[in-house]
Design a protein that fits this description.
Elements (H helix, E strand, L loop, with lengths): L1 E6 L6 H9 L7 H6 L10 E10 L2 E10 L18 H9 L5 H22 L14 H16 L4 E4 L2 E2 L1 E2 L1 E4 L2 E4 L3 H6 L5 E2 L5 E2 L3 H10 L2 E2 L6 E9 L10 E8 L3 E2 L2 E13 L7 H10 L4 E8 L5 E9 L4 H11 L6 E9 L1 E9 L2 E10 L2 E7 L1 H11 L3 H9 L3
Parallel strand pairs: 1-4, 3-12, 4-11, 5-9
Antiparallel strand pairs: 1-13, 2-3, 6-10, 7-8, 12-13, 14-15, 15-17, 15-18, 16-17, 19-20, 20-21
Length: 401
Amino acid sequence: MKTLYLDCFAGIAGDMFIGALLNLVPNPEIIKDEILKIHALDPDEYKLIIEHTTKNGIAGINFDVQLKNLHGHDDHEHEHHHHRHLSDIEAMIIGSDLTQRVKRETLRAFSMLADAEAHVHGTTADKIHFHEVGAVDSIIDIAGAFILMDILNWPRVLCSAVNVGSGTVECAHGILPVPAPAAEYLLHGLPVFSNGEPMERTTPTGALIVKCIADGFSTMPSGKIIASGFGLGNRNSNDMPNALRAVMLETSGEVGGLVRENVTLIECNIDDMNPQDYEPVFGKLFESGGLDVWLENIYMKKGRPGVKLCCLARPDDTFKLSRIILAQTTTQGVRVKEYDRLRLNWKIEEAATTLGKIHVKVTELDGKILRKVPEYEDLKELAKINDKPVWEIRNLISKEI
């Protein structure tokens, strides 16, 4: 399978991530056409720069969003003048022609960012004015990150520990220590370190991207390198390049045509929760990387009925998901077991149908397709658009994919 490895030895920012991934796609200019699908962004407001250059002697791609002032000139001093609420950004993304998965991931990312900003400022997400993160450049950085992941067919993502830098950074609210408060909040539960000359090395947007896409944290995995490249930032330091390295690998974990991988099972017994209260717990676990979540009916002491809450997880996510269960349910502890799992190979493909585009999970064995299953969230969206029940949409789509 394909594995994208992010080497954050010098930190990560939105522009660095996009620059790094542009090395991995056939035509870097494609990002310009894709961003135009966000119709609410006026192309006269910005100019996208894709520059093949060097930083500290390292060749890479510098991606930059140059914003234009009222007179039409490039002017970075005006880049934070476009403040928006979360609802404004959601409307922009929903009304775009981006793929359904890119829309979902972008909306989820901005929701996470709003929560982080609300936590920092002691308010609620709906009242947040997105200052530096809500300007045109950051909307492009965040949506662009998922656009490129979509072009790369959503590979598994592993990440190194993240260099956050040191010193101070000047934000809209004054001079603050590095990492900036929103970045620090988003990095909760992730492995970080500080190295190099004082500077901000991981921005809130960079922290958000890692939070959203990383399946785990490790050194570079075993495999065959297919492609690699550096995304270059706009800052300078003498000790290391302001750069992010992205490496695409073909990693092999197959046994007899099946993928063999390590997983952990987190479980607990509960007999004192309202059944309706499990749904938000499921949502948080899936959002945070849970592979599968389910309930089992059990009988506890004195014949009391109860449920066993089970969550299947990647080993690196065990503690994060355990904390969610402990915080969001009435259990006092969880059990963790390690298992070897054998599973089929699968991938997500986009299919064109008479009702619209839809993502399909394609399952394979020995190079042969076993089945194609349309993604449920896409089915719901098409059902809403076409004013039909989900089951009818599924039946129609299944004949075309």
